[in-house]
Amino acid sequence: MILDRFKVPKEKRFSEQAVITLMNQSIFQFGNALSMIFINLYLWRLTNSLLINGLFNLTAILSQGVMTIFLGKVAKRRDRLTMYRYGIFLTAFFYLCIVVTQEWMVDYFYLFALLKGISQAAYWIGYFTLVYDVSNNENRHRYLGWNQISMSGANLLGPAMAGFIISLYTELTGYIMVFSFAFIMFLVAAMGSLRMKKETTHHKAYYMKFLPLLLTKKPGFGLVLLGWFIIGFPQGVLMYIPHILLYDIFPDESFVGYMNMLFLMLSILASYVISRFARLNATKTYLFVAAFGMTFSTVFLLWDISIWTVVLFMSIGSIFKPLQANTYAAHYYRWLDHLPLKENFRVESVVLRESIINIGRGLGIVIFMIFSAEINPTTIPWVIVSLMAVQLLIPWMAKES
């Protein structure tokens, strides 16, 4: 009887392609996890400038948003799997360029940011379209939950391992070793993508021109799109500021890596609970709880910017972030089944999602840069609190289809 409770119903089980996609995503994410937070610390070590870090992330995010629109059309007319593979290849090339240029990266940081943005645009267009293809309404919450678990598992091990490697070497040698290892992981992911099957489709027309008509017919979909903008608003800042704050307080890369392990262990636990018990008919409740929890986490920063307040801020946010991300993604995918073009609009829907969320991320970074050009313990907490508080609007964006 106990085992029957944990037995997965037939309609929620994954196909072979779903399992392969999850495994390859884990490998790709492990490469990302090894290096992603340490790119910002690498730039911080070279420049000690929040401005350059902000410009690097802003350029990468905006270029990703713009290229998503262009590459989405290419993906629709060719194949989403081809675009997925291009994304992996360009990501590998990005890290290879860092290994080759090393400290000279700072002189060309805007070009690196552009390459990062293009590679991320190609990869996520392909991947999010694959998610729709390999899952359905019955198992999508479970798929997204396991997707979050696999990503969190990769993120759990990656930064800790990278921080340990960096601590073994003097100067910046450890960073180059980590970026080299990440490059190898992306090559492995490229090989893994060869096991994925292309989907044959006769619908190669790009339907983005029908968006105004679609919004007129389904006005609730416009609010759902606006929700992605609000979700992205604080994300751009959270991509680099918390790790820089931790490193500025306690300048040890291994410490940052181990703290990241703590945050992701909490995310893994939250994702597992979501994958087991989440229900589609509780979307607004989940979104409100997540928004409130993430906003509450910022209150500690108003007290002081110290190790314990930053750790509490990141820990509480790590618990509620998967709830928000998985719930809104599942809600968005469900909307596609009720649009006039249905699955034929799936590539366009990914383009819209990625473009809009990156505009939100970019605007969040711009606002942060205006008010916090340097590490100021007075202004930084209030800017982060303000960016997070906007999340409370998201439940009202989740209109039913």
Q: What does this 3D model show about the protein?
A:
There is one protein chain. With about 400 residues, the protein is mostly helical. The chain has helices at about 1-5, 15-45, 50-75, 80-100, 110-135, 140-165, 175-190, 210-215, 220-240, 240-250, 255-275, 285-295, 300-305, 305-335, 345-370, 380-390, 395. It has one domain (about 15-200, about 210-395): Growth Hormone, Chain: A, CATH 1.20.1250. The protein has 17 helices and no strands. Helix 3 packs antiparallel against helix 15 and helix 5 (about 110-135) runs antiparallel to helix 15. The chain is globular, with a radius of gyration of 20 Å. The two termini are about 40 Å apart.
Give the gist of this structure.
This protein has 17 helices and no strands.
Secondary-structure blueprint of this entry?
Blueprint: H1 2-6, H2 16-47, H3 50-77, H4 80-101, H5 109-134, H6 140-167, H7 173-192, H8 211-217, H9 219-238, H10 241-249, H11 253-277, H12 283-297, H13 299-303, H14 307-336, H15 346-371, H16 379-389, H17 394-397
Based on CA inertia axes, which overall geometry fits? globular
Mean pLDDT: 82
Count of all domains: 1
Give the H and E element order. Answer: HHHHHHHHHHHHHHHHH
Distance between the termini: 38 Å
* Uncertain segments: 1-6
- Looking at CATH, the homologous superfamily is MFS general substrate transporter like domains
Q: Return the CATH architecture.
A: Up-down Bundle
Structural class: mainly alpha
CATH topology: Growth Hormone, Chain: A
Number of alpha- plus pi-helical segments: 17
Let me know the largest β-sheet.
none
Q: In CATH, what is the class?
A: Mainly Alpha
Strand count: 0
Strand content: under 5%
Q: What is Rg?
A: 20 Å
Helix proportion: over 70%
